[in-house]
Amino acid sequence: MMSSFYLFLLLPSLFFFFLPIHCFNIIQGATDKNTKAYYNCTINGTFASNSTYRSNTITLLNWLSSNATTDSRSYNTTVIGKTTSDTVYGLYICTRDSTPGMCQDCVAEASKLISSLCSKAKEAMVWYRVCYMRYSNRNFFSNVEESPSITFVSDIDYVGQVGRYNTILWNMLNDMRTMAAADSNKTAAMTQKITDHQNIYGSAWCLPYLSTENCSWCLSDAIAYIPAGCCRGKSGGTVMYPSCGIRYELYPFLKEHNIVPPPLRPPPPQRDSRPLAPGFVSGKRKQKNLPLSKVAVPIAIVVALVLLTLGGCCFLRRKGRKSQDDILKENFGNDISTLESLRFELARIEAATNRFATENRVGKGGFGEVYKGILLNGQEIAVKRLTRSSGQGAIEFKNEVLVIAKLQHRNLVRLLGFCLEGEEKILIYEYVPNKSLDYFLCDPQKRRQLSWIQRKQIIMGIARGILYLHEDSRLKIIHRDLKPSNVLLDSNMNPKISDFGMARIVAVDQNEENTHRIVGTYGYMSPEYAMFGQFSVKSDVFSFGVMVLEIINGKRKGTSSSESECIDDIRRHAWEKWTEKTPMELLDPNMEGPYSKEEVIKCIQIGLLCVQEEPNDRPTMATIVFYLNSSSLNLPSPREPAYYFKNNRTEESMTTSKELVNDSNSINEITISKFFPR
Questions:
Q1: What does the pLDDT look like over 418-474, one tens digit per residue?
Q2: Catalytic residue (one of 86, 221, 335, 481)
Q3: In this structure, which topology does domain 150-257 adopt according to CATH?
Q4: Which of 51, 325, 400, 419 could disulfide-link 344, Cβ–Cβ 3.0 to 4.6 Å?
Q5: CATH 1.10.510.10 spans which residues of the chain?
């Protein structure tokens, strides 16, 4: 009996191991039904069967097969041709639970398959359960590549406490990402307990030639695809990229998962063993009680009608509630369980803003309007209402809620809640009465209100807020759109960074990331981001440097009607004053009150250090905060900053995918900017 039980537990894993891969959801490529493998022949160029490249490919596949006889789990090699176009790069990698014999057999089969089915492709790859093989005419060993990709999806939805399951799964996947990135073989496996009778099992891998940062980056994207694309709410799923992969199941599928049967479930509760009431025998009424039915039937009918009416009302109410829950789940997926406390009813917001009355409108952002509201408890709030017809804000809405909900810092605007009912998408923030920094900088009269003490306080507060995002929060966040209009000022003129619609959460040990779409604001984007799509924490440092120079000078790059009030390139202007040894000429002439010459020069120097062309030359935010807090310190000499060559074509390209809206009457100019995931 016990052996049958063990066999029953192993059946799911055996079924997965031998199920043909074409039974799963395949994003692209082809399958071989006989070998149960997924393969992809990239048509980026073909060659004749008797060409040098074909000959070198066969040589490389033979080398891979022969080296699979060793105990090595992975191996890469290169066959160098007489010309660059004839050089072939290749590798294989076997799963961490495969024996040398299994690995050798798998690599041999993969070599035969890829040679016969991709005989004219410049690049090809094949996935088996035990091994993965690839060759190419380019060196891909240490690069992160996410296409072509493949997913395995369980058809079974998870049954149980979904919120708890999602939290445990998400934490496990991220822990495996960290473990695999730090592991010398770039692999990890974990088992996590869900209940006393159920575990979840996972594994992650990267090409062993990837750096720690690149492995973490690749796995982060694979993890992000699980709730966003392939496997939301499923009991098991797999995402495989050419450079990494991740998998989780409710059954063990690796040796190190310690395949042991879970404890037997407790028997169901026994039926009540108390004696049956008089007049009942085995649940049936004795014949002697039949006359009572004449009284019971009318009563039962009345009770049934009452219950039916109440049930109908409850059903209709639950149906309306379900439709809202469906909307929330569609937008937030499994994250909604952790955000329930931030959810506002639409009726509550309408009451606070007098149904979005015109007199309560205080500003306008990129995708909607901002209203001032007062809750029943007297608390003032800023309500950002996205335009109903704007489908552009959906991704940013979700991104901003998920990011800000996890952040708490005095220099970050605090998200109080959100509302998502019908076509309404609403964000509720703390009310910040002194409008935005942009509101002050571009108006010569309002700039007079900014003393040097306040300007230094604003610079320091912004620096501390960015430092929190980069290093001190439990997430590592790159804002990507730092500018004066996204810095709000409270009643004490303390700065609060806002607008996280384009923010990116990255791995704690990740230094750089790429994107194919450039989004942001011209003049504040670092050159490597504007031109090549490379963004990092140093991109935010660049934006901070521009703002520091603007705060000191009191003028900013913009679209003011008075060109004399807006310097086209604050970096060039500051550098000229610095090289001419007249840095104090950069100080805003409209500023009133005392100031420290040494502090002004130090802040100018910090601003110039931040806007240097090379990211590695820019200081980190931790270093910047240290500089600002130090009364006597010899700072490094800045190099000439990067410049933009402004023309219509350049500015158009720099501001792609970003609608810029400036409203000098805005109190909370919280803009939701279009966000393009990589």
A1: 888 877 889 898 999 888 898 898 888 888 889 999 999 999 999 999 998 998 776
A2: 481
A3: Killer Toxin P4; Chain A (3.30.430)
A4: 419
A5: 437-654
